[in-house]
Amino acid sequence: MPYEFLPHTAEIKIRSSAESFPRALEELASAIADFLTRGNAKKLPEKNLEKIKEISFEKNDLNALTYNFIEEILFELDANEMVVLRAKVSELKGKMKVEFYGLPARKFRALEYIKSPTYSEMRVIEKDGKATIEVVLDV
Q1: CA distance 53 to 32
Q2: What fold is seen in the domain 3-138?
Q3: The whole model's pTM is what?
């Protein structure tokens, strides 16, 4: 399973796993979209999505990069009323290039709300050709 929701007392905890850190970030974006849209993100074909934004991150601190990645997703919803439904992540010379794809929030009947990412219980593990990201999101 590329991502799963883990038990947590008051917040949302997600674990995403993939064959590389860029793919694990993509799965994390999908998990956040799944939560925000109450499962409706999975039903949308890729061809219907709009390119929202392209951004680059330095890859020196994976926890900070993950935190900023999530902040960008939440910023798009709060500031621009765009729901990020997919991310395409590539790595080049110590930088991560991210392309966000999604739809206007008005296209969804109801959305869940995430206040912010947290560093609490955040873990990024790259081991044996696999990457795992665990994050807790404040709701």
Answers
A1: 17
A2: Archease, Possible Chaperone; Chain: A; domain 1 (3.55.10)
A3: 0.93
